Amino acid sequence: MFRLSRAPLKPDTLRRRLPGEGAGACVCFEGRVRDRNRGRTVRLLEYEAYDRLAEKEGGRVVAAAKKKFGLKAAVCVHRIGLLPAGEAAVWVGVLADHRAAAFDACRYIIDELKARVPIWKKEHYARGAAEWIAPGDTRGSKAPSGKKA
Amino acid sequence: MKTVRVQYFAALREQAGCREETLATTAATLAVLYAELQRSHGFTFPAERLSVAINDDFSGWSAPLADGATVVFLPPFAGG
Fold it and tell me: Hey, what CATH topology would domain B2-74 get?
């Protein structure tokens, strides 16, 4: 199951979507808004999605993981909207018979989501500027441009 | 001449100044349509950095453009 959420994520509720069934390993990953990136202080992250295609492609990622790793259950939810630093942006939970498959599947889902699902983020900085982030965009990664004004 | 609907998200939405627009075009493929829009809107992304969708699913750049299609040019993804 994959979906987008405009409301804050509730890991305890999401974990209940991974019922026991005697499986031996449950691995969950919670991605949170980091307060710094490329040398700048991040106040808020703004997430935007192409809803219809994101839900379709996210569903394909989760279905592929279930098949590839033989999972008993898998859930992935991604937040949309304005999130302050520290807030959960994405939650992945998987249930498998053994831990190796559970760890690998959890990693697979978050990596594939980042690569394949049409979701974007804009960083809002402490000094007021804001920028859409593109992976592989290394501007400022070595020499932060945040001069002490 | 055909009529297509183009939707924009994130950085392209801001550069276009709108969420979507309906256009009349003679472009035969998505690649030609993007080149036209890049000229008219001043989009900063080269086509190589984008992916593209037709009617809510991923497509290739050489896909033919049909009358009535909904097209989305997608900036590099940054979920997670």
Answer: Ubiquitin-like (UB roll) (3.10.20)
